[in-house]
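> call design_seq(struct)
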């Protein structure tokens, strides 16, 4: 398995990095790992409260989130899905998804990179052999590692060349979320001379992984989602997930099954949960501002002494609350469906091949429904909060705009219109979608 290493710092790139020392006290404070579901959620809530204190300022400074990754490590949240036998939390996916949502309430950027890291850490459960899964989990958990991934499907696949007992990786990806501050990077490419895809996990801190430090977008500014060049990165054949290193061919019972394509709705559900978390954080922050600063409108047929008595303000907050509650409930339903599938079919039971295309497709459409609702509701709430906070709330110091900018930036990751169309064919014709890199 890839050796442990510290990530390339963006201090030499476009933005300086935040200093991990600012969160050092939490290393000891959070030394004991949570146990129950409620304890894990409480820990995520503590992280949320830490992050929200200066989220607007950090977002405006645009510093690489090295300190925030250290905070996640101190909290133990990176270990929540890992097997207990290696020191992990042993929790199912519905707990992980809820933690992503909670962290995103405090800082959508950190919620996003946290969600991606959890996802990449669990990828081996889907595409790897049981032996690879056990080895990688032990390595990640025992070293408390943070993961990124150079797997943007809109770009050309990385090229993978076999050279004896090793693989040589080359290529370019326009997006590589969290890579700059990661310990390990997931690579995906196509083996030369074939159409077969390979996943592997390598140390980030090596000369062949070259970050451009060019992430300077309107939102999700602290996610280090810029481009990366992969140049002659070498990995052993034994780390080709789901492949036989002797025959150098995919293992059929791992690769040629609907189960492998569960990766796609699983990451889409990561997205929806941090969308909802961002919107919840926006509503909470706006409400605090309204209670403290928003003034009533004096030029009304029924003027009020307090903004808290204004009909339109109460109506808007009530409507936002109702729609966010509905979105969260729908997400919880999908989160539970993910847990059910991964607990029913998994590498420890050696029954991943029993998942049917229909089961996989129905899960994908449950997730698609959450994606549509979380996108629509999230954008509506994060833009609408200015209607109930007032003109002074548009100040950069207040920073309410970051919620909308973060959501607007990531919700164009893939067109939600295609999710609506898929759901239309499912509702009208009973069809489940053919798996793609985005479905």
């Amino acid at each position: 398995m890839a050796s442990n290493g510290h990530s390339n710092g963006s201090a030499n790139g476009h933005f300086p990095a935040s200093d991990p020392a600012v969160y050092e006290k939490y290393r000891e404070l959070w030394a004991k790992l949570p146990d129950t579901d409620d304890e894990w959620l409480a820990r995520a809530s503590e992280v949320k409260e830490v992050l929200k204190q200066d989220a607007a300022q950090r977002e405006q400074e645009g510093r690489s989130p090295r300190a925030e990754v250290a905070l996640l490590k101190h909290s133990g949240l990176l270990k929540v899905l890992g097997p207990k036998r290696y020191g992990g939390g042993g929790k199912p996916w519905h707990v992980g998804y809820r933690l992503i949502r909670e962290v995103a309430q405090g800082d959508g950027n950190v919620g996003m990179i946290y969600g991606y890291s959890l996802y990449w850490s669990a990828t081996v459960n889907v595409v790897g052999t049981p032996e690879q899964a056990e080895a990688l989990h032990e390595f990640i958990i025992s070293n408390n590692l943070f993961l990124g991934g150079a797997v943007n499907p809109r770009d050309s696949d990385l090229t993978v060349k076999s050279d004896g007992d090793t693989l040589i990786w080359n290529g370019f990806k326009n997006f590589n979320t969290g890579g700059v501050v990661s310990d390990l990077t997931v690579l995906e490419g196509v083996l030369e001379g074939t159409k077969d895809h390979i996943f592997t996990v390598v140390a980030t801190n090596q000369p062949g992984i070259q970050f451009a430090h060019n992430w300077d977008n309107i939102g999700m500014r602290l996610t280090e989602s810029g481009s990366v060049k992969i140049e002659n990165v070498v990995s052993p054949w034994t780390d080709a997930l789901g492949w036989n290193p002797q025959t150098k061919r995919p293992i059929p019972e791992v690769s040629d099954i609907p189960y492998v394509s569960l990766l796609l709705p699983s990451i889409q559900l990561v997205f929806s949960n941090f969308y909802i978390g961002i919107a919840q954080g926006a509503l909470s922050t706006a409400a605090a501002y309204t209670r403290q600063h928003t003034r009533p409108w004096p030029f009304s047929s029924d003027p009020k002494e307090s903004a808290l008595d204004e009909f339109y303000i109460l109506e808007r907050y009530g409507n936002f609350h109702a729609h966010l509650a509905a979105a969260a409930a729908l997400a919880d339903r999908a989160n539970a469906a993910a847990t059910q599938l991964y607990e029913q079919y998994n590498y420890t039971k050696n029954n991943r091949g029993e998942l049917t295309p229909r089961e996989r497709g129905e899960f994908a459409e449950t997730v698609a429904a959450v994606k549509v609702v979380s996108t629509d509701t999230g954008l509506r709430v994060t833009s609408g909060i200015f209607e109930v906070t007032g003109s002074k709330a548009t100040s950069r110091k207040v920073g309410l705009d970051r919620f909308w900018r973060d959501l607007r930036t990531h919700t164009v990751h893939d067109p939600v219109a295609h999710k609506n169309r898929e759901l239309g064919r499912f509702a009208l014709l009973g069809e489940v979608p053919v798996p793609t890199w985005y479905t």
